[in-house]
Amino acid sequence: xxxxxxxxxxxxxxxxxxxxxxxxxxxxxxxxxxxxxxxxxxxxxxxxxxxxxxxxxxxxxxxxxxxxxxxxxxxxxxxxxxxxxxxxxxxxxxxxxxxxxxxxxxxxxxxxxxxxxxxxxxxxxxxxxxxxxxxxxxxxxxxxxxxxxxxx
Length: 152
Fold this sequence. Notes:
Number of helices: 1
Number of strands: 10
Shape: elongated
Helix content: under 10%
Radius of gyration: 20 Å
Low-confidence stretches: none
Distance between the termini: 26 Å
Structural class: mainly beta
Mean pLDDT: 87
Order of helices and strands: EEEEEEEHEEE
């Protein structure tokens, strides 16, 4: 199964003085479906400061206690592509290799959508309690544990 929300990132460090992060998110699901409450968590160096953000949609905020940029998109239609750019200053000179390369994580929900395409066509309920059951099924796809490795 291809990722429902594909993430590409470019992280550029400029001589330990600043870092620029560009993240592109693309919905790889049907155009008639919409992902809700999309959250893209992008790790940043622990010494990053003075954040500046530019997003084509949604909001980006810096969470310094977790060394993350959290980009939230309320409604993400299938087939669409959105961009987020972040710019940080790096006041200290730190060894890149010591920090590691944490992955980008993505959370989302797509209502009325199943990845497998499996659908409930028939259900028979045999119950003698007198409770009136309604013939209704709600599908929802959730992201689960979804990570993308960065190459920087």
